[in-house]
User: Fold this.
Amino acid sequence: METSRKTFASKLILKVNIYIYFMMITVVLILPFLGAFHLFDWDEVNFAECAREMIQTGDYSQVMINFVPFWEKPPLFIWMQAISMKALGISEFAARLPNVFAAFFTFLFLFKAGKELKNPKLGLIWVIAYAGSFLPNIYFHSGIIDPWFNLFIITGLYFGFKGIKGGQLKYHLISGTLIGLSILTKGPVGLILFAVPFVLFILLNRKVALPKWAGILSFSVSFLLIGGLWFFLLLIQGKEQVIYEFIDYQVRLFQTKDAGHGGPIYYHFLVLLLGCFPASFIALRRFSFRPKYSFEFLMTLTLLFTLLLFSVVQTKIIHYSSLCYFPITFLAASYVFDKLENKSSLKASARIVLIGLFLLGIIFTLFGWALNHPEFILNNFKMNSFTKDSLSQNLAPSLLFYLPGIFVFLAALLLYFNYLKEQRALVLLGGSLTVAVGILTLIPLVQRIENYSQRGHVALCESVQMQHKNVLIHPIGFKSFVPLFYGLQSGTIMKNDLEAMDEFNLVNTKGLNKFVYFTSKAYKKKEILELYPNLIFVDEKGGFCLYRKKDQILLK
Assistant:
């Protein structure tokens, strides 16, 4: 009895230590500088504004933007942001905080899955490969939906795999619940990303992997109960139109491309190859399409289908293919793990990582130099008018822009000497850790990029909000959610569907019960003043202009 108690206590301490370990990793790698720069237009500001409006209106049953129904996204992630903002206030930090928790649970899942599939070493290598790859790490620092969405899908696939391999109904129930949560996070694409590779896996291994009807029923019940929760809430409130518009948007998303978000069919291949460095280069050595009754083959199918799906989809946005981060890093981790277990040579892979790190150091150094010398870009490259205005701000140079390049070069040199000592495993894992920690040194660069791309717009909206509380800010000639979030627009003062008016009516309608300001990109200033003689130019900052109406009268 005493021995069993000691065994139980030791296991409990080990579990607690694992949680503390991954909490520390998350705090060190993800939490710092979370609110160091403004939310980026569109997606980050869009979701944060939805959460802010949810808090202001008190209506948590549907997502709204500009205080009208927003049917593009379900509410789960918006609920997370709303909870964070209720606790910490409306801020960039609060908007991004939910993805810090996503990082913690992702690292924990990767470790536990690797441990169950083989042993703790595989789990640890998978964590290092994921956290130490460029885009997977960066996305945890953002306020977008995808980190949670992808986590629900990969865990759904994992428990579905356990369900058909072990035959236990609880795993099918868990899998259905997780995929239902993915539907509540981003919509029906969650079911597609799960079902196609999972069904293909079953068909290709049908002699040994056919699930029982009880398992299919268990998955279906839990999936429908969780995934249909939001739709049921809308139905009982008589908001069927939101459901119709939501479904229509999902169909259009696959058939058309958003303005400015097109790209070639190989777009996502390049994004994943370069953005998942160094894991992507190692994963190529592991890739195989031979059917096997293994989780690795399920990951291969998931990678291929996700890549194919979003290569065909007309809208090309970087994070659309972000589910691929999991299979890419798993294949890389499996390759390294097997080499270490078999004591095989890692020379070729270690050499690739070293070369990649040196190239990354060169790129970061050149990028830092370019940020300090915008006149070189202006004088030697063709660009649109907005980019010219943005780069002409005469911002002060900073030596901090060279920090990422210096950090990567020093780490690469350190790893090179270990490579000469034939410690190739250390080079591979150390390369990933270098990327993971080095991302924190990119903060000054990201701040400067944000300064060039949108900070002038944010500053103009914030200045208007400080002067007037009863105010509407409307962009002319471009789409932006910045005026809503940073202008702190209020739905309680809208009148006669004011929020639905187009720019022409807002400019020319007299007797509005609130101040109305307008923003545009600076290069369109002359065109806008000629088109709308009722507007007066107010201010210009960072490539953006602010206007107000000549006949502006605030009615009491």
Remarks:
- DSSP finds 26 helices and six strands in the chain.
